[in-house]
Write a structure and sequence with these properties.
Elements (H helix, E strand, L loop, with lengths): L22 H10 L1 H21 L4 E9 L20 H11 L2 H11 L13 H11 E5 L5 E8 L2 H59 L4 H41 L4 H7 L3 H23 L5 H90 L7 E5 L12 H26 L6 H8 L3 E6 L6 H5 L1 H4 L4 H15 L8 E6 L6 H14 L4 E5 L7 H5 L7 H6 L4 H4 L1 E2 L5 E4 L8 H5 L2 H13 L2 E5 L8 H5 L5 E7 L5 H14 L2 E10 L4 H10 L18
Parallel strand pairs: 5-12, 6-10, 6-11, 7-9, 7-10, 11-12
Antiparallel strand pairs: 1-3, 1-4, 2-3, 8-9
Helix pairs in contact: 1-24, 2-11, 4-5, 4-6, 6-10, 7-10, 9-10, 15-16
Length: 710
C-alpha cells in the first residue's frame, strides 16, 4: 500500500493568486454579466428620459427681497418695540413667514389669482393655497441679506406674476404690522401718561398736606438754618471750653501757691497778667538797687534810706496788685465756666431741633422723590407719544423688493439632459449592483480563484467547453483534434501532474467529481490519451459501476468488464482493450453489477491495483462522484492521489467543499483541481482565462504537430 499523505496542497508551494485580491478577477466578474448591467443601465436611462419628456414643463421665476440690517431711527420712540434685525432667528422668521398659508392667501387675493383659470384649474380655495405652497421655494443668498423667492409654474407669466404678488403682499403686510405696532405703542403711551399724571398730582397734594401738617414752608431751608446754627454753637462751645480749661489751670496753680505760702516771686511766675508783671519787674529792680546801696553805704545814709522807703512802698503796691490779679483770675474762671455750661445747653437744644427736622425730612424727601420720579416718567411718556404721533405716517421699509420676477423661456424641469445623466448614473449603479448580487447569489464555480479559496488546492488546468460533438469525439478529443485548444489543455494538465514534486511517485490517479455530469470521464479519457502520447504505458480503469461511460466513448463491443473481473469470472488481462493509441489500455465497465460498493471494496480490486502497478507507468481510475454514493470513498484506500474535476457554472461550491472535505479526512493527497467546460467564446472568460495562463497553438503545413507527441 502506498503511504498516504494529507489532502492539502504542497507546503512549500508559493502563495496562490487567489489568496489575495486580484483585479483581473473583479474585471472578469463585471465582464461575465456585463450584458445584464448594460441592459439595466439602458432601460433605466430610457425610463428617465421618457419620463422627463412625458412630464409637464415647469418654469421658474425669482424675485429677490432684501432684509434691512437695522430699522432707520429718525426718533427715539422705536426703542419701545425694537428688535435685533441682525439675529439669525429674525432672518429665519421672515423665511417662515413668507412660506405660510396666510401669505399665500394674501398673494392670491391681491393678485386676483383665484379668478385666473390657468393658476390652479379645478381646485377649491383651500386646495389652491396648498398648491401655491408647493410652488414656492425661498432660499437665503449666502453671506448677504437677500432672500430669493422662486415660483415654479407651467405658465412662465403666471410664475413671475405670482412671485411679484407674493413679494409685494409680504412687504405690505410687514408695513401694516409695524404700523399696527406703532398705533398700539401710541395707545399704550397715552394710557401710561394718564396713569403717571394722576400719580404725580396725587403725590403733590400729599406733599402739600405734609407741609401744612408740619407747619414748614420749606423744610430744606429750615434744615440749612438749623445746621448753620448747630455748626456755630459747636464752634463757640469749643472755644469756650478751651478758654475755660486755660483759666482753670491758672487758677489751680494760684490756689496751690497760696496753700503752700510760697514767696511772691513764685506767685508772680504763676500770674501771667501783663499789668502785674510790669509792677513786679519794677519791684525787683528796686530791691536790687537797695542791695547795692547797702553794700556801698551804711544804714543811715540818706540815699539808702530813701531807697528802702521806695522799696517798702513798692512792696505794698505789689502785694495789692497780686491780690487784685488773683481775684481777677478767679472771676474770669467762673465766667468762662458759666459760659461753657450755657453753650452746652444751647447746643443740646439745637441738636434736638435738628433731629426733629431730620425725622420730618425722611417722609418729606420720600414723598418728594416719588413726585419727581412720576414727573420725569410723565414727561418722557408725553415726549415719546408726540414722537410716535409724528412718525406714525413715516414709511420705513425693512423688507424691500430688490428685483422683480420676470418670465423665463427655458423650463427648469424636467431637464431631459439632466434626466438622461441621472438615468445613466442610476442605471450604472443599479446594473453594477445587480451584477454583484447575481455573482454572490450564484453558488457555482466560475473562476479558478474561487476554487482555490474554497477547496484550498491549486487549479492545475482549465478545459475549454467542447460543443456540437458526439460522446466519442469529446472523450477522444485529445487524439482526434491533437492540434486543437482542448488537446493542448490536456497536455498542459499532463505536464502539471508530471512536474509537481510531490506527485512523481504517484502511479495510481483517481479522477472524481462532486456530482455526475461534471466531465470526470471526459477528463479521465483524454488525460490517459495524453499520457500515452507521452510514451507512458497507461491503463484507464472505468470504476464507475453505476453509470459507466467508457464503453460509449470507445464504441467497442464487449461482454465482460471490470465487474466480471472483480467477481472472479475472468482475468483483467482478458477483458482489457488495447486502444488504437499505442501504450493505452482500457479496462471498462460493461455490465452494471447488483452490489457495486462491495466489489470496489473487495480484496480482488486491491489485488488488481497491485498487479497493474507493475505493468503500467500510469493508472488512471475513472471513479464515481464523491457525493450520493460511497464508491469513491472506498476507492481512496487503493490510490496514490486524487484529481478533482469541477465544471464551470455547474458544480455548486458547498457540495464541492463537502466532497473535498471527505477526501481530506481520508488522508489521500489531492494533486489539484481541473476546471472543465469553460466557454472560451465568452468575452469575460476569454479575457480572464487568457490572463490566467491558457495558451494554444495551431498546426500549419510547414510545421505539423505529431499526434503522438506534445
Amino acid at each position: 500500500m502506498p503511504q498516504k499523505t494529507p489532502y492539502l496542497a504542497d507546503e512549500n508551494r508559493e502563495a496562490s493568486p487567489a489568496e489575495a485580491f486580484d483585479g483581473h478577477e473583479l474585471l472578469a466578474i463585471l465582464m461575465e454579466r456585463a450584458w445584464i448591467g448594460a441592459t439595466i443601465a439602458i432601460v433605466v436611462c430610457l425610463f428617465f428620459w421618457l419620463n422627463a419628456h412625458r412630464q409637464t414643463p415647469y418654469y421658474r421665476s425669482t424675485a429677490t427681497l432684501m432684509v434691512e440690517a437695522q430699522i432707520p431711527k429718525f426718533m427715539n420712540y422705536q426703542d419701545i418695540f425694537s428688535f435685533n434685525t441682525r439675529n439669525l432667528e429674525y432672518f429665519n422668521t421672515h423665511l417662515n413667514a413668507l412660506h405660510s398659508r396666510k401669505m399665500m392667501e394674501a398673494a392670491i387675493r391681491a393678485g386676483g389669482f383665484a379668478e385666473r383659470s390657468g393658476f390652479t384649474p379645478g381646485l377649491s380655495d383651500a386646495d389652491q393655497v396648498e398648491a401655491a405652497l408647493r410652488m414656492v421655494s425661498i432660499e437665503p443668498v449666502e453671506k448677504s441679506r437677500i432672500l430669493a423667492l422662486s415660483i415654479e409654474h407651467p405658465d412662465p407669466q403666471m410664475a413671475s406674476d405670482f412671485a411679484n404678488a407674493l413679494a409685494r403682499a409680504y412687504i405690505q403686510q410687514d408695513l401694516d404690522e409695524r404700523m399696527k405696532a406703532s398705533m398700539q405703542a401710541i395707545e399704550w403711551l397715552r394710557e401710561r401718561s394718564e396713569e403717571y399724571r394722576g400719580k404725580m398730582e396725587k403725590g403733590l397734594l400729599q406733599l402739600q398736606e405734609y407741609r401744612e401738617t408740619t407747619e414748614s414752608v420749606s423744610l430744606e431751608e429750615d434744615q440749612n438754618i438749623v445746621i448753620a446754627k448747630l455748626k456755630a454753637l459747636n464752634s463757640a462751645l469749643t472755644t469756650a471750653q478751651t478758654e475755660r480749661i486755660d483759666a482753670e489751670a491758672q487758677w489751680g496753680a494760684v490756689q496751690s501757691q497760696n496753700e503752700t505760702n510760697d514767696s511772691l516771686p513764685a506767685l508772680a511766675a504763676t500770674l501771667q497778667e501783663f499789668g502785674f508783671q510790669e509792677t513786679y519787674k519794677v519791684w525787683q529792680d528796686q530791691r536790687r538797687k537797695v542791695i547795692l546801696l547797702r553794700q556801698r553805704y551804711k544804714e543811715g545814709h540818706p540815699d539808702l534810706q530813701q531807697a528802702v522807703a521806695e522799696e517798702k512802698n513798692l512792696d505794698d503796691q505789689i502785694r495789692l496788685a497780686c491780690g487784685s490779679s488773683v481775684q481777677s483770675l478767679k472771676s474770669r474762671y467762673e465766667v468762662l465756666k458759666k459760659r461753657e455750661a450755657s453753650l452746652q445747653i444751647a447746643l443740646r437744644d439745637q441738636e434736638k431741633l435738628a433731629f426733629e427736622l431730620d425725622r420730618k425730612l425722611v417722609r418729606y424727601n420720600d414723598m418728594k422723590r416719588n413726585v419727581e420720579a412720576d414727573k420725569e416718567v410723565y414727561q418722557a411718556v408725553i415726549a415719546r407719544m408726540k414722537e410716535a404721533n409724528l412718525s406714525g405716517t413715516m414709511p420705513m421699509e425693512i423688507i424691500r423688493l430688490v428685483e422683480e420676477a420676470r418670465p423665463t423661456q427655458t423650463p427648469v424641469r424636467p431637464n431631459p439632459v439632466r434626466a438622461l445623466v441621472r438615468g445613466a448614473v442610476f442605471g450604472l449603479v443599479l446594473g453594477l449592483g445587480v451584477i454583484f448580487f447575481l455573482h454572490y447569489a450564484d453558488r457555482r464555480f466560475r473562476r479558478c480563484e474561487e476554487v482555490e479559496r474554497i477547496l484550498e488546492v491549486p487549479v492545475l488546468g482549465t478545459i475549454p467547453l467542447i460543443e456540437s460533438k458526439s460522446i466519442k469525439e469529446r472523450g477522444m478529443v485529445a487524439h482526434l483534434d491533437h492540434a486543437g485548444e482542448v488537446a493542448e489543455a490536456f497536455r498542459s494538465l499532463r505536464v502539471s501532474l508530471t512536474m509537481r514534486e510531490g506527485d512523481r511517485g504517484a502511479d495510481v490517479l483517481m479522477v472524481t467529481s462532486t456530482h455526475a455530469g461534471e466531465g470526470k470521464s471526459l477528463v479521465s479519457t483524454n488525460l490517459a490519451i495524453s499520457f500515452a502520447q507521452d510514451q507512458k504505458r497507461t491503463l484507464l480503469i472505468g470504476a464507475d459501476l453505476r453509470r459507466p461511460s467508457l464503453q460509449k466513448i470507445l464504441e467497442r463491443e464487449s461482454l465482460r468488464g471490470l465487474a466480471e473481473v472483480l467477481k472472479g469470472e475472468c482475468s483483467w488481462r482478458e477483458v482489457r482493450i488495447q486502444h488504437e493509441i499505442p501504450g493505452l489500455d482500457v479496462l471498462p465497465t460493461v455490465r452494471i453489477p447488483s452490489r457495486p460498493t462491495e466489489l470496489l471494496g473487495s480484496r480482488q480490486f486491491a489485488d488488481l491495483i497491485r498487479e497493474v502497478r507493475g505493468e503500467y507507468d500510469r493508472v488512471i481510475i475513472d471513479a464515481p462522484p464523491m457525493l450520493g454514493v460511497s464508491d469513491s470513498l472506498i476507492l481512496l484506500s487503493n490510490v496514490d492521489s486524487v484529481l478533482f474535476v469541477v465544471r464551470y457554472a455547474v458544480t455548486p461550491r458547498l457540495s464541492a467543499h463537502r466532497a473535498a472535505k471527505l477526501i481530506r479526512e481520508s488522508g489521500i493527497r489531492s494533486v489539484g483541481v481541473v476546471m472543465n467546460g469553460v466557454n472560451m467564446k465568452s468575452a469575460a472568460n476569454y479575457y480572464y482565462y487568457r490572463q490566467y495562463g491558457q495558451y494554444t497553438y495551431t498546426a500549419s503545413k510547414n510545421n505539423p504537430v505529431s499526434p503522438s507527441g506534445s
